[in-house]
Amino acid sequence: MPTMADVARSAGVSVATVSHVLNGTRPVLPHTRQAVLDAVEELGYTPNTLARSLVTSRTRSIGLAVSAVSNPYFTEILQGVEAGALEHGYSLLIADPHDDPGHERKVVQLLHERRVDGMIVAPSAAPRELVGYLTRHALPTVFLDRLVDAGAHDTPRFDQVCADSAEPTALLVTHLASLGHRRIGLVAGLPGLSTTSERITGYRHGLTAAGLAHDERLVVHGDSSSDGAERATAALLSRAAPPTALVTANNAMTIGALRVLRERGLSVPGDIALCCFDDFAWADLFSPRLTAIAQPSRELGARAVRVLLDRLAEPDRPARTVRLPCSFVHRTSCGCPERPEGPEGPETGRGPRRTPWPRAEKGTDS
Asked: For residues 146 and 341, which has the higher predicted lDDT (pLDDT)?
């Protein structure tokens, strides 16, 4: 196997110059740099990343801990993280915490023991052990998708990247109310998750904006899973006055809710209207097509990598919370008819109409 010394001899330069070219640690004249790269290509030289990490104390690797990697939403986030990591020359080590607080702490410790330079974590509903471990070891970390309560003085202790949740959920509610619905149910996620609490808050704000009373009996927890949503939706439909419209708070729960509606012979939107949080690839293939809030999942993953790299470059910078906008994808499960072709292109016709919110990024005041 060729060594760095072999590359140096072939290119007619010193080993130090080869190191500077490969690691970008010092400017090198263009013709010299090209000679080194040509020698690398000709000899088939592969840098010894283990030896480099021993010298630099950096492995150029990122640990990613997200649950339910089979979920299309988290799969797309993973793709964004991977693309962002590779773009900046980092490898990725992945673990699934299974939304279990104890297991979450263990897998993060295992990733840390692999000497990752930093972590990107979608925390569980009870991340106390996780936060304690990360704090004790001062491990650069970005919380992704789900926020962790800020520390004293409302200042975040860790960098965080997520999508807007409250305002988009409020929009789903006000849209259903504008279609005449007065009993709008919510299948909410797992208690303790920031996404769950924010979407419940948005649901309530939407009711208030529409002049509707808030009825706690119309809010049930589907625990962010398809099976949980089946039980929750069945409970809602068993009420003496069941909802005429339903908001589901993630894609897995949308599937569970649809399964129950089908089993009971209820049509959407004829018998009950439906709007969902999380768009997914086949939402446009359902009949009717699903009106949804689309999260920028790949961009969330890529942004988390950039925020982590900023932290590695400036360890003492203030922690920040970055929120990315969602889009309202207007289809027909809400009860609206297909829209005719318009001047803005096919998305105003049989395709979905998307309405975005402005981007928001917060720092220590988040």
From this structure: 146
CA gap 277, 125 in Å, rounded: 19
Cα three-residue angle 168-216-177, rounded to 5 degrees: 45
Where does the chain show beta strands of DSSP type E? 61-65, 91-95, 118-121, 141-144, 159-163, 184-188, 219-221, 245-248, 273-277, 291-294, 321-324, 327-330, 353-356, 360-362
pLDDT at 362: 46
pLDDT tier for residue 156 given thresholds of 50, 70 and 90: low
Calculate mean pLDDT across residues 164-174. 97
Q: How many other C-beta atoms lie within 10 A of the C-beta of residue 102?
A: 12
Select from 303, 261, 298, 297 the least CA-distant residue to 277: 297
Angular region, 115: left φ>0, alpha ψ -120 to 50, beta rest? left
Alpha-carbon separation of residue 139 from 50, 60, 117, 366 (angstroms): 20, 14, 8, 21
Asked whether 109 and 133 are in contact (CB, 8 A), the reply is yes
DSSP, res 337: P
Return the structure tokens found at 352: 């979905």
Q: Is 68 exposed, middle or buried (0-12, 13-18, 19+ CB in 10 A)?
A: middle
- Helix, strand, coil share of the chain (percent; to 5): 45, 15, 40
- What per-residue string of b and e applies to 75-84 under the rule 16 or more CB within 10 Å gives b? ebbbebbbeb
User: Does residue 270 carry a pLDDT above 50?
Assistant: yes
Token couple for 342? 């318009």
Q: In what order do the strands lie in the sheet with 159-163?
A: 91-95, 61-65, 118-121, 141-144, 159-163, 321-324, 360-362
pLDDT tens digits, 202-236: 999 999 999 999 999 999 999 999 999 999 999 99
Q: Please report how many Cα atoms fall inside a 13 Å half-sphere around the Cα of residue 244, on the Cβ side.
A: 9
Distance between CA atoms of residues 332 and 270, nearest Å: 11
Split at pLDDT 50, 70, 90, the class of 355 is: low
Terminal alpha carbon distance of the chain: 52
pLDDT band at 281 (very low <50, low <70, confident <90, very high): confident
Residue type at 30 in one-letter notation? P
Model confidence, pTM: 0.79
Order across the sheet with 245-248: list the strands. Answer: 219-221, 184-188, 245-248, 273-277, 291-294, 327-330, 353-356
